[in-house]
Amino acid sequence: MSLPPAPTMEVDGGTTVVTPEMIRAPAVDQMTDTAIKFVKEARGAVMRTLMDIRVPQKELREDFDPDACTGDGQQRPPLMHFGFAMSWTQVIALLRRHNYLHSPSMPFKPTLANLSKTRSHPHLNIVEKDALRDRLLLVLGFKTGEELAMNECLTPKSVRVVISLYTNYSKGSNGWWTDEDRRQEVMSALRNFLRSKNYNPDEHLNWYWDAKWCGLGYSAPDDAFNPWPAAQNSRWRTHFDNRSPDEGKARRTIDTKGDQAY
User: Fold this and answer.
1) Together in a domain, 119 and 169
2) Range of the domain at 133
3) Alpha carbon of 83 to those of 59, 91, 148, 191, 223: distances in Å?
């Protein structure tokens, strides 16, 4: 695969190529509104590039399989989730459609009760996302009898939440997935629950890049999936399991807006 074009953004009426330095948080004494706005726009441009090049896969590529990764010092593949992708708006609509968003039969959560009062949800905060995630996972546990997970992942449109059945690092360890009868039972329950006139589960069942660990700030082994060659971008991680908490905190303070944040 060829290398992707570098991210670009509009600056003073012209197009500027975004560099790794442009997405770094400014120093505390330089953190003006203008500086923060500039970094947000630069990160937005990089995120758009990442969503263009780190696309979902129907079938997992062989070089994304950790079992195929051999040799000392070889970089491990990125973390990929296999599951159903949804926007948070679709999650809310799903829970509302099945009367699980705010129901006497479910544990009361003020956050969900507030969300049930309106159909417009342009920006959800972390508390609201956590409440929706907990409620949907609880319901999915009832429907399938299995413990699933939900993770934000990259899609061509935005960062979306994925009902993760397993990852490229955990595949084969799920007892229900290796039992053909049980697998069909669980998948049938999921498809029936998720399907609506506006959502076809099979269209959204793919392998997705984990947005938290393998999104902004992560360089993949293959530069075809990087906005800049990894050798020219030493500040980005090359492993998804060694992220510094301080780095994450600094990045979240001026992250991209809306559902592009991780």
Assistant:
1) yes
2) 62-66+77-209
3) 12, 14, 10, 11, 25
